[in-house]
TrEMBL record:
Keywords: Signal. This is LTD domain-containing protein. It holds the Pfam family LTD. Residues 21-145 form the LTD domain. It comes from the Bacteria. Residues 1-26 form the signal peptide. SUPFAM superfamilies: Lamin A/C globular tail domain.
Length: 152
């Protein structure tokens, strides 16, 4: 869901014309979504024994890339299977992150919990979907299962 900026409006010297012209550059700047999935820790360290500590070591980090607070009330985070976390009344501060853990815990401004008793994210590959309150997909993060975490 991330897009690249590749064109600019260029005024033609002496003719007074404006043309849409691709800009040749060494690299394209990537426009970040206002709210994005920045990291998924899909394989908690150690054996998958289902303890709350192990479950909470599996998590997704969501980042507000803007300079203003964003209301995430009603937004959802889900996997391919459909395991879904729904944000209750919640505001993510400007530039801040919130970590959504799989296990149980006390919700704060920086940590939220699925309150599940087993793992959500597949170690062999999965996709995390972040959707706004109207159900529109805002960002996704996919991995194939090499390692324990991915940066999105």
């Amino acid at each position: 869901m991330r897009s690249f900026v590749t064109k600019a409006l260029v005024a033609t010297a002496g003719l007074g014309l404006a043309l849409a012209t691709p800009i040749a550059a060494a690299g394209s700047a990537q426009a970040l979504p206002p709210i994005m999935i920045s990291r998924v820790q899909y394989d908690s360290p150690g054996p998958d024994n289902g303890s709350n500590a192990s479950l909470n070591a599996e998590y997704v980090v969501i980042k507000n890339t803007t300079r203003s607070n964003r209301v995430l009330t009603g937004w959802t985070l889900r996997d391919k299977t459909g395991y879904t976390y729904r944000f209750p009344s919640f505001t993510l501060r400007a530039g801040a992150t919130v970590t959504v853990h799989t296990g149980r815990g006390t919700a704060t401004a920086t940590h939220r919990y699925y309150n599940r008793s087993w793992y959500v994210w597949n170690n062999t590959g999965d996709t995390a979907y972040l959707r706004n309150a109207s159900g529109t997909t805002v960002d996704t993060c996919t991995w194939k299962g090499s390692g324990a975490a991915t940066t999105c």
